[in-house]
Design a protein that fits this description.
about 140 residues, alpha/beta, about 35% helix, about 25% strand
Length: about 140
Amino acid sequence: MIKTEHRVGAWTSEMASVDSVCRVMVADDEPEFRGWLRSVLNESGDFRLIAEVRNGTEALELIPSLLPDLLIADMYMPDPDGLEVVRYVQRHFSGIKAILVSAHEERVYERLAREEGALAFIPKAKLSLDALRQALKGEAAP
């Protein structure tokens, strides 16, 4: 059963817990990207989207109650950006893994992401289920 709640422009779905499924929160200000990623994650057998938010403020409001296994955040979304959100998550919820994404592919983003405690930085153009799986295993993304 899927239960949907609307909070501050965000949606969440509470699902039966399945140990092998990685519960994911997506934080990105681009609706088209969120929609694409929602489809990709929900069609996989090993990821389940539990929340989708438009900015860092919404992410910070939902993280304490949802405690996702994985946060996928845009580096440059507004209010605050993905780097700030990952910094907060690492300080307060160290069990939550984070991957930062961006439409830009600058090499320096990989270093910035890791300095803040993210598992990886993946350019949006290269984001795939395989790239997510590799990042979670600690392998370099393709």
